[in-house]
Amino acid sequence: MKTKAGARYLLRLDDANPWMRQAPWGRVEALCDQYGVQPVVAIVPHCEDPALRLEDEDENFWEKARRWQAKGWTIALHGFNHVLSGTGRGVVPLNDRTEFAGQPEAQQRIKIREGYQVLRENGLDPTVWIAPAHTFDRVTIRLLQEETEIRVISDGLARHAFTRWGMTWLPQQLWKPRQCPSGLWTICLHPTSDPETILDRLENFLKSTKLSSVSDALSQARPWGVSDAVFAWGFRAARRVKTWRRPRGKAAV
């Protein structure tokens, strides 16, 4: 398998928390070390989502997170508690369950402020925002600017990094490794919940594909434009068709 000309890839790892499954996370870290990959890692500051609390609490979790940072991994603030108690689609309308989109400003502010503080108090420097379920709104963005130093969002549908609403966005369009046309593509994996076959696929992908760095991707950002809006519309339309054709009872990605 050869990398298609012009295609660049980032790796994003979601849902890191003290109760995550250790074995798959360990395997992914070993693969990143082996192939020189520095992923974006999304850390839940105060995880209360039972779907993510699957093992006994790892008392060394924050030490492990500092080790990731020392390796050059990009630390991302992944919401606050990862409890999707609200409904709302926000500015990246891929899902309708949310921790942030459409929620009261005061509630969002507290979560952003306290979540950022948890990571900082544990010796981490989060530079990227990742909303649980992709759902956040313009209020969330403004509060990130008011309460934190974060000016990068890992989300959005485009084929290159872009600037919009005072933030730089690294688009995220893939949930498993695959070859794509030219552009910047972020592969988002969930080591705690993804099946082993996805990690096998990652290993095979890394054997033949060199991943890009976050700094390189950010350096090539350009303002959001009409072509980006068209791509986003087409992506969502294709995703809706795929969902409609999915057998009953099979969850959407």
Could you explain how this protein is built, in words?
- The structure is a single chain.
- Mean pLDDT is 92; it is low at 244-253.
- The longest helix is centred in the C-terminal third of the chain and has 20 residues, at 226-245.
- The chain has 7 helices and 11 strands.
- It is globular, with a radius of gyration of 17 Å.
- By secondary structure, it is α/β, with parallel strands linked by helices.
- The protein has one domain (7-245): Glycoside hydrolase/deacetylase (TIM Barrel, Alpha-Beta Barrel), CATH 3.20.20.370.
What's this model, at a glance?
The protein is of the alpha/beta class and 253 residues long. It has a single domain (7-245), classed as TIM Barrel (Alpha-Beta Barrel). It has helices at residues 22-35, 61-70, 105-121, 138-147, 196-208, 214-219, 226-245; strands at residues 7-16, 40-43, 74-77, 86-87, 97-98, 128-129, 152-154, 162-164, 167-170, 183-189, 222-223.
CATH architecture: Alpha-Beta Barrel
- Supply Rg: 17 Å
Distance between the termini: 25 Å
**SS summary, helix count:** 7
Work out the count of structural domains.
Answer: 1
CATH-defined fold name: TIM Barrel
Structural class: alpha/beta
Question: CATH class, please?
Answer: Alpha Beta
% residues in beta strands? 15-25%
Low-confidence stretches: 244-253
Q: What shape does the CA trace take?
A: globular
- What is the assigned CATH homologous superfamily? Glycoside hydrolase/deacetylase
- How much helicity do the residues have? 25-40%
Strand arrangement in the largest pleated sheet: 10-1-2-3-6-7-9-8-11
User: H/E series, N to C?
Assistant: EHEHEEEHEHEEEEHHEH
